[in-house]
Specification:
Helix content: 25-40%
Bound molecules: pyridoxal-5'-phosphate
Largest sheet: 7 strands, mixed
Low-confidence stretches: none
Order of helices and strands: HHEHEHEHEHEEEEEHHHEEEHEHEH
Distance between the termini: 29 Å
Mean pLDDT: 97
Strand order of the largest sheet: 1-9-8-5-4-2-3
């Protein structure tokens, strides 16, 4: 246990009241008012027409890809610098993930490298808005239109992230969110598939509920899944949504606080891309040299401060070794990056302590 963890959800609003309503009314499975209320409120908060709740962000991606009909023989372009779930979901469909590199400045998928990896088998691009930063959706949508490709936005880490005041997840054909316990809003475990396209969301709904046919009980016309969110999870989600603005405001203030306190030190704080609002799911830094990363993390751990390494690029993992090639920017970022404590309840005093410990380490070691 760390004195200062990387994340701790704030469940101090209506969460308990709404969960108690589920218990009192015995609506504890995937039917009940909170499922519908959460879906409707979420769709309106993000600015999409349709939202289907699911039991986590990984299956949300699986359903989004299935709804687009992606399967064996297809290629889906995905950044190698992402959480494993983005890539696993592509693999579940039988399609092949095609890894591309990141942009140095934003750490997001590089549109030029997307272009270089398009083949006749490419069906879709999956931009991932990593750590709450927005991808360059103008460039990605232009490439998709030119090559007639689908776009699945993985917004698991990007609730609250905007491009010119428009929420991420509203640019592509279909998009997904995660509500895991460390996400900007949480349901414990949970996810959402969103789209303006009614047909795509109807397909996702059909698949998430065992492929139940519309007009006959216990009649299933496709091989579906049980990917439903429970009413209890949705109850927590609705309560979280009520306070989402304050969570995001505090997380942005923390990022500004890190930037201010770490100014002049030899670390680079993840910068906000121009024209966007970074929701800072994770406030992250790069150390100057990869060899400093683990000693700094160990130093912070000794001071009771939890940190995380940036994700390991997925192309370096054993199950993808047959398609191994260099993605130098993603690799460089990954070996040098650290996620710092980023939860909205973090106090200014804790922020002082973390930054003071980083400064102390850098003074002693450089
Ligand atoms: C980029 C990304 N995609 C997908 C997921 C999967 O979400 P979940 O953990 O809810 O399955 C995560 C989350 O943890 C993520 O960070």
């Amino acid at each position: 246990m760390f004195d200062i963890p990387v994340y701790r959800p704030d469940l101090g609003g209506n969460e308990k009241k709404y969960v108690n309503e589920c218990l009192d009314t015995s609506w504890i499975s995937s039917r009940g008012r909170f499922v519908n209320d959460f879906e409707t409120s979420f769709a309106s908060r993000v600015g999409v027409k349709h939202a289907a709740s699911v039991c986590n962000g990984t299956v949300a991606l699986h359903l989004a890809l299935m709804a687009l009909g992606i399967g064996p023989g297809d290629e889906v372009i995905v950044p190698t610098l992402t959480y494993i779930a983005s890539v696993n979901a592509i693999t579940y469909t039988g399609a092949t993930p095609v890894f591309v590199d990141s942009e140095r400045a934003t750490w997001q998928v590089d549109p030029d490298d997307i272009r270089r990896h398009i083949t006749p088998r490419t069906r879709a691009i999956m931009p991932v808005h990593l750590y709450g930063q927005a991808c360059d959706m103008d460039a990605i949508m232009a490439i998709a239109q030119e090559h007639r490709l689908f776009v699945v936005e993985d917004c698991a880490e990007a609730f609250g992230t905007l491009i010119r005041e428009r929420h991420v997840g509203t640019f592509g054909d279909i998009s997904t969110f995660s509500f895991f316990g460390n996400k900007t809003i949480t349901t414990g475990e949970g996810g959402m598939v969103v789209s303006d396209d009614k047909t795509l969301i109807e397909r996702a709904r059909h698949l998430k509920g065992q492929g139940l046919a519309a007009h006959r009980e216990y009649w299933h016309d496709v091989v579906g899944y049980n990917y439903r969110m429970t009413n209890i999870e949705a109850a927590i989600g609705l309560a979280q949504l009520e306070r989402a603005d304050s969570f995001i405001a505090r997380k942005r203030a923390l990022a500004a606080g890190y930037k201010e306190r770490l100014k002049g030190l030899s670390v680079e704080v993840h910068a906000e891309a121009p024209g966007t609002v970074h929701s800072y799911w994770m406030c992250s830094i790069l150390v100057a040299r990869a060899e400093q990363r683990e000693p700094l993390r160990a130093h912070l751990a000794r001071a009771g401060i939890e940190t995380r390494p940036l994700f390991y690029p997925v192309h370096t993992m054993p199950m993808h070794s047959r398609s191994f090639r260099r993605h130098p920017i993603a690799e460089d970022l990954a070996w040098r990056g650290i996620n710092l404590p980023s939860w909205p309840g973090l106090t200014d005093e804790q922020l002082d302590t973390i930054c003071m410990q980083i400064a102390r380490f850098l003074e002693e070691r450089t």
